[in-house]
Fold this protein.
Amino acid sequence: MRGRKRTEMNYFPQVAISWETAAAFSLFCFCLGAAFYALALGQRKGKRSGPETIEFTTASAKRASRRKNGAQTETIGALAESLWLRSGPEPAVLSDREPTSGPVFKNPQTRAFWAEEIEPNRHLFEKRRELAVIERVLTELDRHGLCSSVVSGDGKSAFAPTARRFSRVTLLEHSLRAARYMREIHDSLYTEKILYGKHLVAALAHDVGKMECLRPEGGRYVKDDHAAASARALNAWIMECGGERAALSFRSVVDSVRNHHRSVNAPDPILENLKRADTAAREEEFSGVRKNPRAAAAPTDGTDAEPPEWLLRDMPRILNDHVGPEINTAALEEAPFARAISSTNGIVYVCPHYLFDGVREHMEREEIADMRFFDPSRPAELRAKLLVTNSLKSRNWVGEGVRDGYYAAFWNYEYGGKKIKKGGFWVPVFAEAFDVPLSELEKRKNAELRRITSVSPCLARGRKK
Protein backbone atom coordinates (compact mmCIF):
# COMPACT_ATOMS: atom_id res chain seq x y z
CA MET A 1 0.00 0.00 0.00
CA ARG A 2 2.77 2.36 0.84
CA GLY A 3 4.62 1.61 -2.36
CA ARG A 4 1.54 2.15 -4.52
CA LYS A 5 0.89 5.54 -3.02
CA ARG A 6 4.42 6.60 -3.60
CA THR A 7 4.12 5.50 -7.24
CA GLU A 8 0.89 7.51 -7.81
CA MET A 9 2.37 10.62 -6.26
CA ASN A 10 5.37 10.56 -8.56
CA TYR A 11 3.31 9.82 -11.71
CA PHE A 12 3.33 13.49 -12.85
CA PRO A 13 6.75 15.03 -13.18
CA GLN A 14 7.41 18.32 -11.47
CA VAL A 15 8.34 21.07 -13.97
CA ALA A 16 9.90 24.31 -12.73
CA ILE A 17 8.79 27.47 -14.68
CA SER A 18 10.59 30.69 -14.11
CA TRP A 19 8.74 34.01 -13.72
CA GLU A 20 10.26 35.40 -16.87
CA THR A 21 8.64 32.60 -18.88
CA ALA A 22 5.22 33.21 -17.23
CA ALA A 23 5.37 36.94 -17.91
CA ALA A 24 6.22 36.36 -21.54
CA PHE A 25 3.34 33.91 -21.89
CA SER A 26 0.85 36.36 -20.32
CA LEU A 27 2.02 39.15 -22.64
CA PHE A 28 1.60 36.84 -25.60
CA CYS A 29 -2.01 35.99 -24.57
CA PHE A 30 -2.85 39.65 -24.10
CA CYS A 31 -1.55 40.60 -27.53
CA LEU A 32 -3.38 37.69 -29.10
CA GLY A 33 -6.66 38.77 -27.43
CA ALA A 34 -6.19 42.35 -28.56
CA ALA A 35 -5.62 41.15 -32.11
CA PHE A 36 -8.81 39.10 -32.05
CA TYR A 37 -10.79 42.10 -30.72
CA ALA A 38 -9.37 44.31 -33.47
CA LEU A 39 -10.27 41.73 -36.09
CA ALA A 40 -13.83 41.43 -34.76
CA LEU A 41 -14.16 45.18 -34.75
CA GLY A 42 -13.03 45.43 -38.35
CA GLN A 43 -15.56 42.81 -39.45
CA ARG A 44 -18.32 44.65 -37.56
CA LYS A 45 -17.67 47.92 -39.32
CA GLY A 46 -17.85 46.26 -42.76
CA LYS A 47 -16.54 47.92 -45.84
CA ARG A 48 -15.57 51.27 -44.39
CA SER A 49 -12.74 53.15 -45.99
CA GLY A 50 -9.67 54.23 -44.10
CA PRO A 51 -7.63 52.55 -41.43
CA GLU A 52 -9.25 51.37 -38.26
CA THR A 53 -8.24 53.06 -35.01
CA ILE A 54 -8.44 51.46 -31.62
CA GLU A 55 -9.14 54.08 -28.97
CA PHE A 56 -9.25 53.81 -25.22
CA THR A 57 -11.32 56.62 -23.72
CA THR A 58 -12.64 57.46 -20.30
CA ALA A 59 -16.32 57.92 -19.45
CA SER A 60 -15.96 61.71 -19.22
CA ALA A 61 -14.18 61.79 -22.58
CA LYS A 62 -17.00 59.75 -24.13
CA ARG A 63 -19.64 62.18 -22.79
CA ALA A 64 -17.68 65.14 -24.13
CA SER A 65 -17.37 63.43 -27.50
CA ARG A 66 -21.15 62.87 -27.59
CA ARG A 67 -21.90 66.52 -26.88
CA LYS A 68 -19.39 67.66 -29.50
CA ASN A 69 -20.01 65.26 -32.36
CA GLY A 70 -23.55 64.14 -31.61
CA ALA A 71 -22.52 60.49 -31.82
CA GLN A 72 -20.48 58.09 -29.70
CA THR A 73 -17.06 57.00 -30.97
CA GLU A 74 -16.88 53.25 -31.30
CA THR A 75 -14.16 51.87 -29.07
CA ILE A 76 -13.21 48.52 -27.65
CA GLY A 77 -14.54 49.72 -24.32
CA ALA A 78 -17.85 50.69 -25.90
CA LEU A 79 -18.08 47.36 -27.69
CA ALA A 80 -17.37 45.49 -24.50
CA GLU A 81 -19.93 47.61 -22.64
CA SER A 82 -22.57 46.79 -25.24
CA LEU A 83 -21.76 43.10 -24.99
CA TRP A 84 -21.87 43.04 -21.20
CA LEU A 85 -25.24 44.89 -21.05
CA ARG A 86 -26.84 42.83 -23.79
CA SER A 87 -28.71 40.80 -21.19
CA GLY A 88 -31.22 43.67 -20.68
CA PRO A 89 -31.52 47.36 -19.71
CA GLU A 90 -31.35 48.51 -16.13
CA PRO A 91 -34.73 48.98 -14.45
CA ALA A 92 -35.90 52.59 -14.18
CA VAL A 93 -35.49 54.18 -10.80
CA LEU A 94 -38.46 56.33 -9.69
CA SER A 95 -37.67 59.59 -8.00
CA ASP A 96 -39.74 60.78 -5.07
CA ARG A 97 -40.08 64.11 -6.85
CA GLU A 98 -41.76 62.68 -9.91
CA PRO A 99 -45.54 63.07 -9.76
CA THR A 100 -47.54 59.88 -9.86
CA SER A 101 -50.34 59.46 -12.35
CA GLY A 102 -53.61 61.10 -11.40
CA PRO A 103 -57.16 59.85 -11.83
CA VAL A 104 -58.67 59.52 -15.28
CA PHE A 105 -61.58 61.90 -15.96
CA LYS A 106 -63.68 61.84 -19.12
CA ASN A 107 -64.59 65.56 -19.11
CA PRO A 108 -61.84 68.03 -20.12
CA GLN A 109 -63.01 70.64 -17.62
CA THR A 110 -62.56 68.14 -14.78
CA ARG A 111 -59.06 67.30 -16.02
CA ALA A 112 -58.21 70.99 -16.25
CA PHE A 113 -59.45 71.61 -12.70
CA TRP A 114 -57.35 68.71 -11.39
CA ALA A 115 -54.24 70.01 -13.15
CA GLU A 116 -54.74 73.62 -12.04
CA GLU A 117 -56.09 73.30 -8.50
CA ILE A 118 -55.28 69.82 -7.17
CA GLU A 119 -51.99 68.63 -8.68
CA PRO A 120 -49.91 71.65 -7.49
CA ASN A 121 -51.09 70.97 -3.91
CA ARG A 122 -51.11 67.19 -4.14
CA HIS A 123 -48.52 66.58 -1.41
CA LEU A 124 -50.38 68.91 0.97
CA PHE A 125 -53.67 67.09 0.42
CA GLU A 126 -52.00 63.71 0.84
CA LYS A 127 -50.35 64.80 4.07
CA ARG A 128 -53.67 65.99 5.48
CA ARG A 129 -55.51 62.89 4.15
CA GLU A 130 -57.82 64.94 1.97
CA LEU A 131 -56.77 63.87 -1.51
CA ALA A 132 -58.84 60.69 -1.54
CA VAL A 133 -62.02 62.59 -0.64
CA ILE A 134 -61.35 65.29 -3.25
CA GLU A 135 -60.74 62.63 -5.88
CA ARG A 136 -63.93 60.76 -4.95
CA VAL A 137 -66.14 63.85 -5.17
CA LEU A 138 -64.59 64.90 -8.48
CA THR A 139 -65.06 61.39 -9.86
CA GLU A 140 -68.77 61.40 -8.99
CA LEU A 141 -69.20 64.86 -10.52
CA ASP A 142 -67.35 63.77 -13.64
CA ARG A 143 -69.65 60.75 -14.02
CA HIS A 144 -73.02 62.22 -13.05
CA GLY A 145 -72.56 66.01 -13.07
CA LEU A 146 -73.69 66.76 -16.61
CA CYS A 147 -77.27 67.27 -15.41
CA SER A 148 -78.73 70.76 -14.99
CA SER A 149 -77.59 72.81 -12.01
CA VAL A 150 -81.25 73.57 -11.21
CA VAL A 151 -84.06 71.04 -10.88
CA SER A 152 -87.83 71.27 -10.74
CA GLY A 153 -88.92 72.51 -7.34
CA ASP A 154 -85.66 74.36 -6.64
CA GLY A 155 -85.98 77.97 -5.53
CA LYS A 156 -84.20 79.29 -8.62
CA SER A 157 -86.44 77.30 -10.96
CA ALA A 158 -89.57 78.92 -9.50
CA PHE A 159 -88.79 82.11 -11.41
CA ALA A 160 -89.02 81.09 -15.06
CA PRO A 161 -86.67 83.65 -16.72
CA THR A 162 -83.87 82.95 -14.28
CA ALA A 163 -84.44 79.20 -14.42
CA ARG A 164 -83.91 79.26 -18.19
CA ARG A 165 -80.48 80.77 -17.70
CA PHE A 166 -79.37 78.51 -14.90
CA SER A 167 -80.73 75.38 -16.59
CA ARG A 168 -78.08 75.79 -19.30
CA VAL A 169 -75.34 75.47 -16.68
CA THR A 170 -74.43 71.90 -15.78
CA LEU A 171 -73.92 70.83 -12.20
CA LEU A 172 -70.28 70.03 -13.00
CA GLU A 173 -69.66 73.55 -14.33
CA HIS A 174 -71.33 75.19 -11.35
CA SER A 175 -69.45 73.06 -8.81
CA LEU A 176 -66.04 73.69 -10.38
CA ARG A 177 -66.77 77.42 -10.65
CA ALA A 178 -67.82 77.57 -6.99
CA ALA A 179 -64.64 75.69 -6.02
CA ARG A 180 -62.46 78.21 -7.84
CA TYR A 181 -64.24 81.06 -6.05
CA MET A 182 -63.76 79.16 -2.80
CA ARG A 183 -60.03 79.07 -3.42
CA GLU A 184 -59.95 82.83 -3.99
CA ILE A 185 -61.87 83.47 -0.78
CA HIS A 186 -59.59 81.13 1.17
CA ASP A 187 -56.42 82.76 -0.16
CA SER A 188 -57.73 86.22 0.70
CA LEU A 189 -58.47 85.25 4.31
CA TYR A 190 -55.72 82.80 5.29
CA THR A 191 -51.96 82.88 4.90
CA GLU A 192 -51.61 79.15 5.54
CA LYS A 193 -53.39 76.39 3.60
CA ILE A 194 -54.56 74.38 6.57
CA LEU A 195 -58.24 74.67 5.57
CA TYR A 196 -57.67 74.74 1.82
CA GLY A 197 -58.63 71.12 1.14
CA LYS A 198 -61.78 71.31 3.27
CA HIS A 199 -62.86 74.50 1.46
CA LEU A 200 -62.54 72.73 -1.90
CA VAL A 201 -64.46 69.66 -0.72
CA ALA A 202 -67.32 71.84 0.58
CA ALA A 203 -67.58 73.75 -2.72
CA LEU A 204 -67.35 70.66 -4.91
CA ALA A 205 -69.93 68.66 -2.93
CA HIS A 206 -72.45 71.35 -1.94
CA ASP A 207 -74.90 70.53 -4.77
CA VAL A 208 -74.18 66.87 -5.55
CA GLY A 209 -77.63 66.04 -4.19
CA LYS A 210 -79.02 67.39 -7.47
CA MET A 211 -77.53 64.48 -9.40
CA GLU A 212 -80.24 62.14 -10.60
CA CYS A 213 -78.67 59.16 -8.86
CA LEU A 214 -79.03 60.94 -5.48
CA ARG A 215 -82.43 62.58 -5.89
CA PRO A 216 -85.27 61.22 -3.75
CA GLU A 217 -87.30 58.53 -5.43
CA GLY A 218 -90.92 59.52 -5.91
CA GLY A 219 -92.63 62.52 -4.41
CA ARG A 220 -92.16 66.19 -5.15
CA TYR A 221 -88.69 67.70 -5.07
CA VAL A 222 -88.26 70.24 -2.27
CA LYS A 223 -85.63 72.95 -2.65
CA ASP A 224 -83.84 71.98 0.58
CA ASP A 225 -83.67 68.29 -0.32
CA HIS A 226 -80.51 68.62 -2.37
CA ALA A 227 -78.56 70.12 0.55
CA ALA A 228 -79.49 67.25 2.86
CA ALA A 229 -78.85 64.68 0.11
CA SER A 230 -75.47 66.29 -0.62
CA ALA A 231 -74.47 66.07 3.05
CA ARG A 232 -75.48 62.40 3.27
CA ALA A 233 -73.58 61.47 0.12
CA LEU A 234 -70.48 63.39 1.15
CA ASN A 235 -70.44 61.78 4.58
CA ALA A 236 -70.72 58.31 3.01
CA TRP A 237 -67.82 59.03 0.61
CA ILE A 238 -65.68 60.32 3.47
CA MET A 239 -66.35 57.15 5.48
CA GLU A 240 -65.34 55.01 2.49
CA CYS A 241 -62.10 56.95 2.03
CA GLY A 242 -60.97 57.30 5.64
CA GLY A 243 -63.42 55.80 8.08
CA GLU A 244 -64.63 57.40 11.28
CA ARG A 245 -61.44 59.37 11.79
CA ALA A 246 -61.89 61.15 8.46
CA ALA A 247 -65.60 61.69 9.16
CA LEU A 248 -64.70 63.46 12.38
CA SER A 249 -62.16 65.61 10.58
CA PHE A 250 -64.67 66.60 7.87
CA ARG A 251 -67.63 67.17 10.21
CA SER A 252 -67.62 70.95 9.74
CA VAL A 253 -67.52 70.45 5.96
CA VAL A 254 -70.55 68.16 5.98
CA ASP A 255 -72.45 70.60 8.21
CA SER A 256 -71.61 73.46 5.85
CA VAL A 257 -72.96 71.51 2.88
CA ARG A 258 -76.13 70.68 4.81
CA ASN A 259 -76.74 74.31 5.89
CA HIS A 260 -75.60 76.30 2.85
CA HIS A 261 -79.22 77.38 2.20
CA ARG A 262 -80.09 77.91 5.87
CA SER A 263 -79.48 80.57 8.47
CA VAL A 264 -77.71 79.20 11.56
CA ASN A 265 -77.08 80.83 14.92
CA ALA A 266 -73.35 80.12 15.03
CA PRO A 267 -72.13 79.99 11.44
CA ASP A 268 -68.85 78.23 10.66
CA PRO A 269 -66.20 80.05 8.56
CA ILE A 270 -66.38 77.32 5.93
CA LEU A 271 -70.17 77.75 5.75
CA GLU A 272 -69.94 81.53 5.33
CA ASN A 273 -67.26 81.19 2.67
CA LEU A 274 -69.29 78.52 0.87
CA LYS A 275 -72.31 80.83 0.71
CA ARG A 276 -70.16 83.58 -0.78
CA ALA A 277 -68.58 81.26 -3.33
CA ASP A 278 -71.96 79.81 -4.35
CA THR A 279 -73.45 83.28 -4.75
CA ALA A 280 -70.47 84.54 -6.76
CA ALA A 281 -70.72 81.53 -9.08
CA ARG A 282 -74.43 82.08 -9.65
CA GLU A 283 -73.94 85.78 -10.34
CA GLU A 284 -71.32 84.96 -12.96
CA GLU A 285 -73.65 82.38 -14.53
CA PHE A 286 -76.45 84.95 -14.53
CA SER A 287 -74.57 87.89 -16.06
CA GLY A 288 -71.48 86.32 -17.60
CA VAL A 289 -69.29 88.72 -15.61
CA ARG A 290 -66.83 87.44 -13.04
CA LYS A 291 -67.54 88.84 -9.58
CA ASN A 292 -65.53 89.60 -6.49
CA PRO A 293 -66.29 86.63 -4.22
CA ARG A 294 -65.51 88.54 -1.02
CA ALA A 295 -68.37 90.95 -1.74
CA ALA A 296 -70.70 88.42 -3.33
CA ALA A 297 -72.84 87.53 -0.33
CA ALA A 298 -74.49 89.99 1.98
CA PRO A 299 -73.79 89.69 5.69
CA THR A 300 -76.37 87.88 7.75
CA ASP A 301 -76.07 89.83 10.98
CA GLY A 302 -78.87 92.29 10.32
CA THR A 303 -76.68 94.99 8.75
CA ASP A 304 -77.78 94.26 5.19
CA ALA A 305 -80.91 96.46 5.09
CA GLU A 306 -79.37 99.14 2.84
CA PRO A 307 -80.88 98.86 -0.67
CA PRO A 308 -78.47 98.58 -3.60
CA GLU A 309 -77.99 101.58 -5.86
CA TRP A 310 -79.62 99.97 -8.87
CA LEU A 311 -82.81 99.31 -6.88
CA LEU A 312 -82.98 102.90 -5.60
CA ARG A 313 -82.52 104.15 -9.14
CA ASP A 314 -84.96 101.82 -10.89
CA MET A 315 -87.78 101.58 -8.37
CA PRO A 316 -90.03 104.15 -10.19
CA ARG A 317 -89.77 102.11 -13.38
CA ILE A 318 -90.55 98.88 -11.54
CA LEU A 319 -93.67 100.37 -9.95
CA ASN A 320 -95.04 101.81 -13.17
CA ASP A 321 -94.10 98.96 -15.50
CA HIS A 322 -95.05 96.03 -13.28
CA VAL A 323 -97.42 97.18 -10.52
CA GLY A 324 -99.19 100.11 -12.16
CA PRO A 325 -101.14 98.13 -14.77
CA GLU A 326 -102.39 95.70 -12.09
CA ILE A 327 -103.86 98.31 -9.72
CA ASN A 328 -107.61 97.69 -9.26
CA THR A 329 -107.50 94.97 -11.93
CA ALA A 330 -109.37 91.83 -10.90
CA ALA A 331 -106.90 88.94 -11.02
CA LEU A 332 -107.85 86.84 -7.95
CA GLU A 333 -110.91 84.66 -7.50
CA GLU A 334 -111.40 85.51 -3.82
CA ALA A 335 -111.17 88.71 -1.79
CA PRO A 336 -109.29 91.00 -2.07
CA PHE A 337 -109.58 90.09 -5.80
CA ALA A 338 -106.57 92.22 -6.88
CA ARG A 339 -102.82 92.28 -6.27
CA ALA A 340 -102.88 96.05 -5.79
CA ILE A 341 -105.87 98.09 -4.60
CA SER A 342 -106.15 101.86 -4.33
CA SER A 343 -108.20 103.76 -1.78
CA THR A 344 -109.62 107.25 -1.58
CA ASN A 345 -107.12 108.16 1.16
CA GLY A 346 -104.32 108.27 -1.46
CA ILE A 347 -102.78 104.88 -0.65
CA VAL A 348 -102.24 101.93 -2.99
CA TYR A 349 -102.02 98.66 -1.08
CA VAL A 350 -99.58 96.42 -2.97
CA CYS A 351 -98.93 92.71 -2.43
CA PRO A 352 -95.21 92.49 -1.49
CA HIS A 353 -94.79 89.14 -3.21
CA TYR A 354 -96.06 90.51 -6.51
CA LEU A 355 -93.85 93.57 -6.11
CA PHE A 356 -90.87 91.30 -5.46
CA ASP A 357 -91.58 89.35 -8.67
CA GLY A 358 -91.62 92.68 -10.50
CA VAL A 359 -88.17 93.48 -9.16
CA ARG A 360 -86.81 90.16 -10.37
CA GLU A 361 -88.40 90.56 -13.79
CA HIS A 362 -86.75 93.96 -14.04
CA MET A 363 -83.40 92.42 -13.09
CA GLU A 364 -83.82 89.77 -15.76
CA ARG A 365 -84.72 92.32 -18.39
CA GLU A 366 -81.84 94.66 -17.49
CA GLU A 367 -79.39 91.80 -16.81
CA ILE A 368 -78.73 92.91 -13.24
CA ALA A 369 -76.84 90.23 -11.31
CA ASP A 370 -77.62 90.42 -7.61
CA MET A 371 -78.16 86.92 -6.28
CA ARG A 372 -79.62 88.17 -3.01
CA PHE A 373 -82.88 88.37 -4.95
CA PHE A 374 -82.64 84.80 -6.27
CA ASP A 375 -81.43 82.93 -3.20
CA PRO A 376 -84.04 80.20 -2.57
CA SER A 377 -83.57 80.10 1.20
CA ARG A 378 -86.37 81.59 3.28
CA PRO A 379 -84.17 83.99 5.31
CA ALA A 380 -82.52 85.33 2.14
CA GLU A 381 -85.89 85.90 0.47
CA LEU A 382 -87.18 87.83 3.48
CA ARG A 383 -84.08 90.02 3.49
CA ALA A 384 -84.48 90.72 -0.23
CA LYS A 385 -88.11 91.78 0.24
CA LEU A 386 -87.01 94.07 3.05
CA LEU A 387 -84.56 95.71 0.64
CA VAL A 388 -87.45 96.41 -1.75
CA THR A 389 -89.56 98.03 0.96
CA ASN A 390 -86.61 100.05 2.25
CA SER A 391 -85.98 101.38 -1.25
CA LEU A 392 -89.58 102.71 -1.22
CA LYS A 393 -89.04 104.19 2.23
CA SER A 394 -85.94 106.01 1.06
CA ARG A 395 -88.19 107.95 -1.35
CA ASN A 396 -90.85 108.54 1.34
CA TRP A 397 -93.36 106.50 -0.62
CA VAL A 398 -94.42 104.10 2.17
CA GLY A 399 -97.34 105.08 4.41
CA GLU A 400 -97.84 104.30 8.07
CA GLY A 401 -98.36 100.78 9.29
CA VAL A 402 -95.07 99.07 8.37
CA ARG A 403 -92.54 99.14 11.17
CA ASP A 404 -88.77 99.25 10.76
CA GLY A 405 -87.34 95.85 10.00
CA TYR A 406 -90.60 94.67 8.39
CA TYR A 407 -91.31 94.57 4.67
CA ALA A 408 -95.15 94.58 4.85
CA ALA A 409 -98.07 94.53 7.31
CA PHE A 410 -101.40 92.78 7.84
CA TRP A 411 -104.50 94.89 7.25
CA ASN A 412 -108.18 94.72 8.18
CA TYR A 413 -110.86 95.94 5.82
CA GLU A 414 -114.61 95.93 5.40
CA TYR A 415 -116.18 94.05 2.55
CA GLY A 416 -119.83 94.71 1.99
CA GLY A 417 -120.19 96.01 5.55
CA LYS A 418 -118.49 92.96 7.08
CA LYS A 419 -115.13 93.40 8.79
CA ILE A 420 -112.40 91.07 7.51
CA LYS A 421 -109.51 90.73 9.97
CA LYS A 422 -106.05 90.28 8.49
CA GLY A 423 -107.67 90.09 5.08
CA GLY A 424 -104.72 91.69 3.32
CA PHE A 425 -100.94 91.53 3.59
CA TRP A 426 -99.77 94.66 1.83
CA VAL A 427 -97.19 97.41 1.46
CA PRO A 428 -98.95 100.83 1.62
CA VAL A 429 -97.52 102.89 -1.25
CA PHE A 430 -98.52 106.52 -1.81
CA ALA A 431 -100.42 106.96 -5.05
CA GLU A 432 -98.00 109.73 -6.06
CA ALA A 433 -95.39 107.04 -6.79
CA PHE A 434 -97.39 106.08 -9.89
CA ASP A 435 -97.75 108.10 -13.07
CA VAL A 436 -101.52 107.47 -13.18
CA PRO A 437 -103.74 109.92 -11.19
CA LEU A 438 -105.69 108.49 -8.25
CA SER A 439 -109.01 109.36 -9.92
CA GLU A 440 -108.09 107.24 -12.93
CA LEU A 441 -107.14 104.35 -10.67
CA GLU A 442 -110.48 104.48 -8.86
CA LYS A 443 -112.36 104.28 -12.15
CA ARG A 444 -110.83 100.86 -12.80
CA LYS A 445 -112.61 99.22 -9.87
CA ASN A 446 -115.37 96.78 -10.65
CA ALA A 447 -118.38 96.15 -8.41
CA GLU A 448 -116.55 93.63 -6.20
CA LEU A 449 -113.59 95.91 -5.58
CA ARG A 450 -115.88 98.83 -4.72
CA ARG A 451 -117.30 96.83 -1.82
CA ILE A 452 -113.84 96.86 -0.12
CA THR A 453 -113.75 99.87 2.21
CA SER A 454 -112.26 101.17 5.45
CA VAL A 455 -108.77 99.66 5.31
CA SER A 456 -106.87 99.79 8.64
CA PRO A 457 -103.75 98.10 10.06
CA CYS A 458 -104.20 95.25 12.52
CA LEU A 459 -102.08 94.56 15.59
CA ALA A 460 -99.96 91.89 13.84
CA ARG A 461 -98.14 94.34 11.63
CA GLY A 462 -96.18 92.18 9.28
CA ARG A 463 -93.22 89.95 9.03
CA LYS A 464 -89.72 90.79 9.94
CA LYS A 465 -86.87 89.71 7.76
